[in-house]
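Example record

Each entry pairs one chain with its bound ligand, adenosine-5'-diphosphate.
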Amino acid sequence: MSIFPVLLGVQYVGIAALMIEILYVMKQKTSKLQTLMMLVLIATCINFVGYLFEMQATDKNTALMAIKFIYFGKPYIALSIFLFAMEFYKVRLPRWLVNVLCGIHISVTILVLTCEKHTLYYSSIDYTYEGMFPHLVFGHSIIYKIYNYGFIMGYLLIIVLVGVKNYKYTRTHIEKTRIILMSSISGVSVAGFLLFCSGAARGYDTTVPAYIISATLLMILMFRYDLLDVLLLAKDDIVDEFDAGIVVLDERNRVIYMNKKAGDILAALQEEKAEAEISRLDRLCEQNERLHIEDRIYELRRKKITRNDNFYGNIYIIGDITESYNYTINLEKQKAIAEHANQAKSDFLARMSHEIRTPINSVLGMNEMILRDSTEPVVKRYAMNIKTSANSLLGIINDILDSSKIESGKMEILPVEYDLDSLLNDVVSMIYAKAKDKELRFEVNVNEKLPNKLYGDDVRIRQVLVNLLTNAVKYTHEGSVMLSVDGKSIGDSLLLFCEVKDTGIGIKEEDLPRIFQTFERVDEKRNRNIEGTGLGMNIVQSLLELMGTELKAESVYGSGTTFYFELSQKIISEEPIGNFRETVEKLGEEYQYKSLFKAPQAKILVVDDNEINRMVFTCMLLDTQIQVTEAESGIKALKLVEKERFDMIFLDYMMPELDGVETLHKMRNMEHNLSKAAPVIILTANAVTGAKEQYLAEGFDDYLSKPIIPEKLEQMIKDRLPKEYVVED
Ligand code: ADP
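Structure tokens for the complex follow.
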């Protein structure tokens, strides 16, 4: 009996402690866990007070009253510990289940309150004076057994099991301690209950102190380990809900934290393979590679944790980029398909324009013969019209070819030495007739002091000027078209200034930016009778951009347009261009072909599978009196050079059996070639960039593009023939 006062003391102390705990918890920030904690403490306190009454009861009735009081608290201790644990482990219990559980516990309270009237809960109620103190002895009904062994023990067991499961996935020290504490709380309660059932406590209900120990441990769990820090909880929740996996490693590369997502992604981190997995992450980060797990793709980022130059560890952020990755891959695929299609289009355009250039070559060549030979003014006029139309068709084809080249980035600027007067002469002679046809004044102002020999891409400058002037003539119905060329020397370069001005229909201010877009034609209603493709201005702008400058435009709608640009060209010699006006005036004279020179002794071989082309070639040189031999194939040419010595050989590129390049190689390797010293020139309609360089690299001496321009052909022959053969006219 001597232990009884001690037990009573424990009761008093316990009650006091519980009161203090309740007050403490009440003062803390509200959260669901805090509410559940309060429930645990209040229920435990009721149980405790009730048991104090029971211990001090001296008769059966008082003891029964105390028992009834106890049951206002006791059944709710295990329930609230269970709910607390589930909240702690973030196990979401359905509402209906919580309601059912509450219902069961309330029913038990009712059963105990009415226990004398039935045997549903206690099968018998006796009072004994044995044991440590007089107490009630109950017979246990089946409901009692199910409730106590099933529910109460069940709760506590579930808490331990969930704890074990969570422990496996937990790496941080603090989390582990929390789980151990939570499980110990259940363990203590179970131990108290088992001890009571065993009867070893001799009538003393050991669940009562067990519960108070549990409640205290729960307090420690909450406050010592910050369970009630809402901010910390919120942080945990946010990080857990985060779409990216987050793993925190300490300075020794041990995992001290990982969020739920990281746990899902890196299952291996939760097993013994953690170390290998971390070194894999390290390697991937260093090589800037992605992490592939099954069909998901993750992007890895590593961030050092440092404070005041001290290294504390690393954070890995693992983002699931599968969707965006697949999207990008898909986009890239689509892009490749589109680029392929675009390339196919460009190739087709290049091929087609090449194919069209060849017959135009024949048309222009034959027409040239008519122009030269015919004395009939009407026929000459018709032929002149053919020449204009064929040239404009050639212009369109060239524009398409250029546009596709620009689009595919294959357009190159090839600077060479050139004569400004010859460039301007070509431009002016092309435009002169057009302006004259429309009865427009064509004024050309070229600063006489401009250096004549320059270094730049004359072909492209010519193209730009021709395009601008053609438009000026096209879009001007009366008045004048003016070309002004001026410049300023800066060191060894000339800043060339070109301006094309017309008194034409003008362009609306809002339309100006649009005219540089491919296929864009503005003011279509008014211009519907004026032919055009809408490619020209875009080509001009692109070419100027490639040459490092840009086209500027000023226009007054209804009164005229001015296009101008500045272009830097290297000066080769300071010799001035002189009076250019005279050149223009000469153009006013009737078209009258005159060959540059005569060379009756010269022998030239032309090799082309196309008969008309050969004929055009021969006819073009009729006036020069050069002896032209024709060959229809490479093989025939090889036979001819064995027997005869030629001064020059023109080889077509596209020929069946042996093409131009193969013929040249064979020719050069022949033992008996009487024309070994003769320059070999390739004839081709292939105007693609780099073609010239390619042919020269194959061993050709020069390159002449089709359609052949008679002046160019003559000039080339004149430059390459031995001087003693050439007789100037
Ligand atoms: P197009 O083949 O239609 O002439 P361009 O690309 O050369 O195509 O020109 C685009 C548009 O710019 C033309 O359709 C025309 O409306 C306008 N344009 C170009 N040059 C002039 C000009 N000198 N005067 C008026 N409008 C012009």
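The longest helix spans residues 322-373.
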